[in-house]
């Protein structure tokens, strides 16, 4: 089974490297698999955190950056040691299945609606449900991820709250991560929903048009995996990562990340605080 685990890890690492993903170098002795969202990678947060984690703990990290739903599925199959995700409803259902360990609050930021500066749908300065309805009613291009991510899940909720079933030529799904979806939206002069961190890290061609609604809160948790998910799981690795990312050194790094470049932190550290609520 150790050989099978190593094969999975190497394949994930090779594929990610080929696609520009950033995983730490391999170590046969102390190497863990982190399944996480594309937003933590595309924003550059992992590039800041993971070398510090390795330096502090000795654990190397192989990162699989996918949508939160896919990351949870990797955990469910016992193909990851720890998850860092942002789809609270799906996380709670998963933890209730009994194969995961601790689920700990890490940080939050928010979602934003971005699009062309001309704003043909007129979504500036209105509530988010009204904004979604205006996009649909105007037939303006909306580029969705459509990839079972936490962002895709929130987008579906927003359409439901707006009383809209998105369909037609104006509604286009990329099936890709946040960074790629932002690039497609810019190319098509369309709107999209993004986490703030990824948008700020690559804003070319799009304008932030709608923000601040309570329904746009975006919360991240770390979830440890246990051997109940499969005998390839290393519980000690997951615990090491969970303890570190919720510890004071990592929380300080999270709170400072982005401040120098963007004039504001891209994430708000939350470990040890009450759960943020809309």
Automatic annotation (TrEMBL):
Limits of the PBP domain: 27-247
Region forming the signal peptide: 1-23
UniProt cross-references to Pfam families, sorted A to Z: PBP_like_2
Keywords: Signal
PROSITE patterns: PROKAR_LIPOPROTEIN
Transmembrane segments: none
Protein name: Substrate-binding domain-containing protein
The organism's taxonomic lineage, starting at the top: Bacteria, Bacillati, Actinomycetota, Actinomycetes, Pseudonocardiales
């Amino acid at each position: 089974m150790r050989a099978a685990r190593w094969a999975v890890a190497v394949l994930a690492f090779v594929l990610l490297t080929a696609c520009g993903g950033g995983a730490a170098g391999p170590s046969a002795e102390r190497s863990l698999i982190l399944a996480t969202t594309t937003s933590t990678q595309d924003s550059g947060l992992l590039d800041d955190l993971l070398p510090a984690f390795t330096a502090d703990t000795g654990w190397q990290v192989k990162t699989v950056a996918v949508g939160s739903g896919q990351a949870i599925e990797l955990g469910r199959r016992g193909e990851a040691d720890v998850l860092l995700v942002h789809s609270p409803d799906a996380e709670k259902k998963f933890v209730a299945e009994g194969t995961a360990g601790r689920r700990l609050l890490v940080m939050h930021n928010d979602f934003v609606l971005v699009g062309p500066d001309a704003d043909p749908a007129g979504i500036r300065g209105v509530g988010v449900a009204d904004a979604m309805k205006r996009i649909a009613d105007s037939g303006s291009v909306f580029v969705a991820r459509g990839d079972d991510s936490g962002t895709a899940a929130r987008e579906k909720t927003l359409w439901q709250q707006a009383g809209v079933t998105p369909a037609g030529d104006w509604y286009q799904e990329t099936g890709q991560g946040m960074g790629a979806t932002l690039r497609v939206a810019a190319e098509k002069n369309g709107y999209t929903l993004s986490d703030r961190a990824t948008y700020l890290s690559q804003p070319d061609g799009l304008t932030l048009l709608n923000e601040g609604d309570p329904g746009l809160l975006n919360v991240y948790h770390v979830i440890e995996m246990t051997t109940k998910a499969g005998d390839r799981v290393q519980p000690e690795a997951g615990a090491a990562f969970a303890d570190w990312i919720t510890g004071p050194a990592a929380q300080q790094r999270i709170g400072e990340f982005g401040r120098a470049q963007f004039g504001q932190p891209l994430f708000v550290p939350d470990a040890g605080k009450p759960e943020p609520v809309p």
